[in-house]
Amino acid sequence: MNIHEYQAKELYRKYGIPVPYGIACFSPEEATEAARKIIEETGNEVVVVKAQIHAGGRGKAGGVKVVKGVEAAAEAAKEIFGKVLVTHQTGPEGKLVQRLLVEQGLAIKSELYLALVVDRETRKIAVMASTEGGMDIEEVAAATPEKIHTVYFHADAGIQNHHIRSLAFKLGLSKEAQKHFAALMKPLAKLFVEEDCSIAEINPLILTEDERVLALDAKVNFDSNAEFRHREYWDSVRDLSEEAPTETEAKEAGLAYIQLDGNIGCLVNGAGLAMATMDTIKHFGGEPANFLDVGGGASQEAVTKAFKIILQSEAVKGIFVNIFGGIMKCDVIANGVVAATKELGLKVPLVVRLEGTNVDKGKEILNNSGLAIVAADSMAEGAKKIVELANQAG
What we know:
CATH superfamily of the largest domain: Succinyl-CoA synthetase domains
CATH topology of the largest domain: Rossmann fold
Number of strands: 18
Mean pLDDT: 90
Low-confidence stretches: none
Strand content: 25-35%
Number of domains: 3
CATH class of the largest domain: Alpha Beta
Shape: elongated
Radius of gyration: 25 Å
Structural class: alpha+beta
Number of helices: 13
Distance between the termini: 34 Å
CATH architecture of the largest domain: 3-Layer(aba) Sandwich
Largest sheet: 6 strands, antiparallel
């Protein structure tokens, strides 16, 4: 689960990680009052008005304004709030700005990059740091990979002093700055482990003129597999307006669903088979419109719901149902497919491949349905057929 920058910074404060003084706002008027309060309390007229969306690249898209004075902050807030920001992470449709963060301006000596991520190859937590703060880390990795320094620590052992010293040395920090860096790094590593994060990124991590180190930006993602341990976050900080409605609906129905950019809807049982199905569709020149795993024990109602979710996308020009029945019975899937097709008045091509428990009964249900369902005997055959039919329909 992603959260907004201001929410991530609230979490950072909880762990004692230094961040700028800022106030979250939900209207231009609130942003104006926040700017007035920050200027009065800090004695500094420079403030920053930031769009709050679940995407990077906000500054390049006009979603971050550094201004001086209350009036300028008010104008910036009016300009950003309600704007659709299009960045390299939002896609062409962009994201609507419905929240703002107003922060104090700071005198910046240099900008650094810092991030903690799960490294599945080493089964450890990777800490990446670079002197190229404020830039997209992907660009740095492609152009100057030697400028990205990485250390690894085990979650059970925690980050060690030698890890921190190694990074501080490679970043070229002074002795005074190294103290502040260590004071930030230790609680950040603790936060990452205790809160079951998949990423905790600070870009930029700034060094001020007086050698302090602060998180000027903050990005935190929580591992959805640990949701049961952190219900307070999922219930209080999740912003459903930032998520695809179909993904939210699928989650509530107990379905594993991720929306993609293709035109072939996929309904599969089992995550591994779902990935293989998507790969096979791409092998035959098609593009999957979604990842959808109905699970091993899905009911007829769940299958019908899955069809409804797939068809909410106008881009879908065909559906491929690929089921290997183990726990899941093929006749249950077949009944769900027939019920969904009749209820929804399906107008796009549908290819079904069934194999496993009660497969003969499932095929009989499909054959006797009187519906235009194309049967396939293998995953490859089914993928090839649906790509051809989708291209004809599209």
